[in-house]
Every structure is written in structure tokens, then in C-alpha cells.
Amino acid sequence: MSHAHALPDAPAPLKVGGLVRLAALVAVVAGAGAFAWALTGGHPQLAWSAYLMGAFFALGLGAFGAAWMAILYLSRGVWSVSMRRVPEAMISWLLPGGVLALLVAVGAPHLYHWADAEAVAGDALLTHKSAFLNLPLFYALVGGSLALWLVLGLTLAMGSRRQDTQGGMAPTHRNRWVSAVFLLVFALGLSVVSFYLLMSLEAHWFSTMFAVLVFTDWMQTGLAFVSVAVGLLVLSGQLKGFVNENHLHSLGKMLFATTGFWAYIYFCQFLLIWYANLPEETAYFLRRYEHGWLAWLLFLPVVKFLVPFVLLVPREAKRSARRLAAVAVLVLVAQFVELYVMVGPALGHGGHAAEAHLPLVELAVTAGFFGLFVLMFSFCLGRWGAVPLKDPMLGECLEYHT
């Protein structure tokens, strides 16, 4: 139940700073230039692998916005009501981001062994898997999953908007039902999307834990983006009176928890090669021990788990907008490193082994996708009230303490 509480004055619509938007625009231009340079310069595989990394990175942020709203609705996470506009704005990426993710299929012959008809004809395992690994099903299953996420995510956002005008608990109750359906569809769709876009890069390899790993990636990275966005809004005074150190503390605890959970899942996937004696799992990591990839493989848990985990242990770090946002930026960079470790070594097919290199093109293209996401996010963030003032749970949110 909500408690009587004198609400602060309604803040002005939220907005992203001009310098942030300018940096995002520069990143978009640089990313487009890097992709065009690689594509026209005789490096199509490099261009499309960078495109895949960037598209998947940004897609995870948009999908997380809807998933986090659904989780919070079902768990009655009233502490997050005052920062709801952030995940709502993230959902807006699902339309352009979904289309851009589907366009990975244009470069499929340069990425996926199963998209090469000659390779499939000469490989018994690829022939066996061709009933599932083919472009028509890629478009149908990936596109269908993304479309369902978009429809249900927008339904959640529109339910919240409806509450801004009519008030009451009815929109909240409806959104809880939508959230239950969304999370079921999201879990199934995430398996499809992650299998097609990433795991099928190595079509001879499979892992039943891969979708869980991608889920932890998207949760950790999405929470990192929310931490940066909310942190900047708090530091600029736009959410004064509505988001305080107690709300930041809970947000920081979620980021801290997903950091530890990622390490657990990543290690469990590695552990499978020992306790289950699975040669398919072994091949995945052996490929990442050779040709310069071992340094990247060892660097990944340091930058994605060890450093952010240690930095977030102190209570004060989770209650400070500046410190929380700084750690969150590191997590976002670490997600790029993981995508590089996932995608890069997988590009060697047959007798050809992919060599590790300084991923400048990949970084530029991924930054370009991230810049596009930020521009879309900033456009949608200020189109509605800064906080859901007519949500009956807002008073309890403002009284929240940790």
C-alpha cells in the first residue's frame, strides 16, 4: 500500500546534455565511416563482424529496458518508480535496433559458415543442421522474436503513460499481467536471438548455457546504462527530490549482483569442459587459447568482474551517483570486450584460424551503434513527464530507505 507523502514540485521533462548528444553524433559518424572503410577496402568479414557486435550490443540495451520494467512490475519494486522514464526510453530502440539486427543477415555469407552453400554441402554436420540454420528461418524466428518484444515492450510503456493521465492502480495491474507474458516470451526469444546471431558463428559448437550467459550480459550491461543515465540526471539536478542515495543504493546493488552472477555463469560454462567431458565445449575455449586470443580471454574476467566487483563492494560506492556511474561506464566497455572474445575467434572457418588484433574498427562501429542508441534514447526521454506523478506507488518510492 502507498503512504501519504507530500510530493516535491514536478520537475521539467528530462533531457540529455548537449555534450552527450554531440559525442553520440560523432560516434555515429565515426562508426559509419569505419564500417564503410572496411566494407569497401576489401575487408567485408571485418566490417560485418563489427556490425554484428555493435548491433547486438545496442539491441541488448533496448531489450533490457522492457525486461527490467517487467521484472520490477512483477517484483513490486516500488523503489524504482521515480526512475521509470529511463527504461521506458530504452524500449524505443527495439524498433530501429531490431531492424538493424535483422540486417546482419545481409552479411551472413561473411560471418556464418552455415550461410555458405558449398560449405554446407561438404560438411555432414552443417547439412544436418541446415533445417534450422538457414536464412528464411533466421528472418522468421529472429524477426518474430524481436517483433513480440517490441509489441509487449510498447504495451508496458503505454500502460505507464496511461497512468500519467488517469491515475489509479488499474494500469499497474494490467502491466503486471503484460510483464508475466513478456518475460516468458523474452526468455524463449532470447534463446533464439542469441543462438542465431552469436552461437551459430561456430555451428559445430553448442552450449545449453549460452542463452543464460547472454541474459546475464544484457542484465549487467543494461543496469550499467541505467546507472550512467540516472547518475547523470541526478548530478544535473533534474531528478532532485525524486531520486536519492537510497534509490541509487538499490540500483547499485543490482549492478553489483549481476556482476557476480556473470562471473558464476561464465565460469560454469568453462567448467563444463572438465566435469562433463564435453568436446564441444572444449573446442570453444581451445580456439580462444590460440592465435593471440588468450590475453583477451584472461583480460575479460578482470575488466568485467574483478575490477567492478571490488569497486562496488563499499556501501558508499553504490550511494554516490558519480562513483556508480564511473563503474558502470567500465562495465559497458567490458561488454564490448566480451563481444569481441565471442565473435572474433569464431570467424575462422575450416582450416583458417582467426587472428587476434587491436579491434579499432570493431570499437568504432560498436560506439556508432551505441551513439545511435543514445540519440534515440535522448529523443524519447523528454517526451513525457520526468516522473510518473500519478502512480499511487510514488509516495512509497520517495519514502524508500536502505
List keywords for this structure.
single chain, mainly alpha, globular
**Morphology:** globular
Gyration radius (Cα, Å) is 21 Å
pLDDT averaged over residues: 92
Please mark out the parts with pLDDT under 50 across 5 or more consecutive residues, or reply none. Answer: none
Number of DSSP strand runs: 0
Question: Could you describe the largest sheet, including whether it forms a barrel?
Answer: none
* Distance from first to last alpha carbon: 18 Å
Question: Any idea how many domains?
Answer: 1
> Would you tell me the structural class of the helices and strands?
mainly alpha
H/E series: HHHHHHHHHHHHHHHHH
**DSSP strand content:** under 5%
Give the proportion of residues in helices. over 70%
Q: Helix segment count?
A: 17
Description of the structure:
The chain is mostly helical. It has one domain. It is built from 17 helices and no strands. Helix 2 runs antiparallel to helix 9, helix 2 packs across helix 15 and helix 13 runs antiparallel to helix 15.
